[in-house]
Specification:
By secondary structure, the chain is α+β, with helices and mostly antiparallel strands. It is built from 2 helices and 9 strands. The strands form 2 sheets. Strands 1, 3, 4, 5, 6, 8 and 9 form a 7-stranded antiparallel sheet that branches. Strands 2-7 form a two-stranded antiparallel ribbon.
Length: 137
């Protein structure tokens, strides 16, 4: 009996240790992100994106959203869990709510909403933000 419980415990623990496969990006999505970060240098990740920097949002794929700040800076948000159904050009929008925060932060939850009928079709949370900055000449 003890052997069975040890075997079940080991199987349970090993199933938790398996990491999900990394998301794959289509060639079109890769081109879209490369256009946004072209000529820019990645900076260390930051935990929050200030409110004033989130106006120009581009959906790359379900795991990646870019926020452009003029021509010289782009923040790339790495979504945790993926935002199901959120695709560029689709009838869905990313809806967030702020409660006293100054911007989007790691762990904030966003909902994917069908803009045609207002139904929530998915959700995800923000991960780290990677700033890409154009070097000064």
């Amino acid at each position: 009996m003890r052997g069975i419980s040890l075997l079940l415990s080991a199987a349970f623990l090993s199933s938790c240790a398996a990491a999900p496969p990394p998301p794959t990006r289509t060639a079109q999505d890769e081109q879209r992100i490369q256009r946004l970060i072209s000529g820019k240098v990645a900076q260390p990740n930051v935990a929050c994106l200030p409110t004033y920097r989130r106006n120009d949002m581009t959906v790359i794929d379900e795991y990646t959203i870019a926020f452009r700040v003029g021509a010289n800076q782009t923040y790339v948000a790495h979504m945790q869990g993926g935002c199901s159904n959120l695709r560029a050009g689709g009838p869905y929008a990313l809806l967030t709510r702020q409660f006293g925060s100054s911007g989007y932060c790691r762990g904030d939850i966003a909902q994917v909403v069908d803009t045609t009928n207002g139904i929530t079709v998915g959700s995800c949370s923000f991960g780290d933000f990677t700033p890409y900055v154009k070097p000064r000449a």
